[in-house]
Amino acid sequence: MSDSEEPLADRVERLEREVSAISEGVEALHDRLDDGAEREDDGDSSSPPATEMQRQQPSPKRKRTSSFLQREASWSWSDWESEDWLSRIGIALTLFGVAFFFKFAADRGWLTPPVQVALGALLGVVLLVTGLRLWAERERLGQILMGGSSAVFYATVFAAHQLFAPYALAFACMVLVTAGTFFLAVRQRDVALSVVGVLGGLGTPFLLYTGAGSMAGLVVYACLILMGAALIYLYRGWRTLLYVTVAGGWLTFWFAYVSLPPGEAGAAVLQGGILTGWLLFWWTPLAREVLAGDEQAAREQRHAEEASSLIGAFLFRPPAHTLAFSSPLIALAFSQALWSVGEATWGVAALAGAVLYVAAHQALRRRKLPDLAQAHLLAAVVLAAYGFSALLGGDAFLVALAAEAAALHVLSRSLEDRLLRFTAHFFFALAGVLVAARLALDSAETPVFVRGEAFSEGVVLALAAAVSAIMERRRVRRIYRVVAHVLFLAWIVREMSALPSGQAYASIVWGVYAVGLLVAGGQAGRSFLRTTGALTLLALVAKLFLVDLAALDALWRVLLFLGFGAAFLVLSYLHPDLPGK
Q: Where are the domains of the chain?
């Protein structure tokens, strides 16, 4: 081997060693990440020291996420083992069998009431102890047995209350069972136990209902249960627990509203509970996502972006997104049902909420959480739309709705957010329906075009035509322009009909407008404008025969037919290729 070839061989050998070291480092890094995920699930924050290769490799910060969220995100039918469904069916059948046995034995006098309660408590203890013993070796079976023990304890306390009616003692026992279930859920990392605790805790006042008790006690107790569940979600991140808590909380407040006694004292207490629920359901998932970072949110957002529909993209968003949008609307609806005050009051409340959510939007943008920021902006937009409708009403609301829709289109284009774009389309569609209904149902009045009603309708049509220029999809852009064009023609007819021989003036305006579209389309080389102008001229011809012949006197008929006939001949001479390409 020559001297010139020796350095090359050394370099190749060194490169091979470096590639091998890099491969080993990448494998070690993967193993470390997997081990870190398992330690995070177990609550172990310790980690082995990084190797030299791992310290040299730049890696993103790993955000802490809960074990349940990770399992839920990657769950599939292949993960559903026989231990899962067999144990669930088995515990359900066992509980039903025990209940049937107690009923059978009680009907025949075999068991006295105290013995029934004692046997129920004993069964709950047996299931609990067995579940705790099995948990280390058979985690899923142990969790199911512990969940069954909580259900047995709830049923036993309820049965004791029905037999002996010591309300205070029964209530205290149910609270104790709920607290114990929450403790086991956190300790054993079992979402099913936490759900049982929430359902049992919220159901306790209704299971033990005797007609007595105060609204304040019910609301305060429900808020305490909701706070406990919120803290567990903040710590563990179980989405199922959060959604069950949200549904159970609003249902509890609804039952409280239905059974609300007369007087403002009970309503004030319930209003406090509604506000507490709104803040809990808003802040808890928001705080978890802000504290844990947005790695989990980014992963779920990718699932949302891959959804086949816009509704799917909304439903698969993280809970902080969905609840930021829904919680204020539900709280506002509850509050409106609770109090008999004017619409202006709720308009001010909605606008105040919109300001609050805009502030949250700005704060989240500064923390570089754009998805969460957009969800809060969407909630602010909806609240502002309702606030303006309640405060302004009529013409001012129509203008505000269209202006808000136009602003949303601008934001959705800059932020590339489909939900904002959908909301903008919805608001413009609503404004278009309102304008069409007013054009069809309202009669013409003077002065034309400058009345508040006519001016607001014209502003809506102008905004729709203007905002279509920033839309990327040509089909959507043309839909906006066609709808605005048709409504503009109807708007001209409605306004002109207030004048003597108004249909003649409307036809003249139609003709000038159509010629303007043709000329503008020809100069700009826009076939869509030329086609729209040509179709408008054809619509004008139809109007001359179907409307003007019956509505106008002879002189106007002569002038219109001669004038437009000459205009058509001149146009055909000057532009023989209309509408052109």
A: 86-185, 500-574
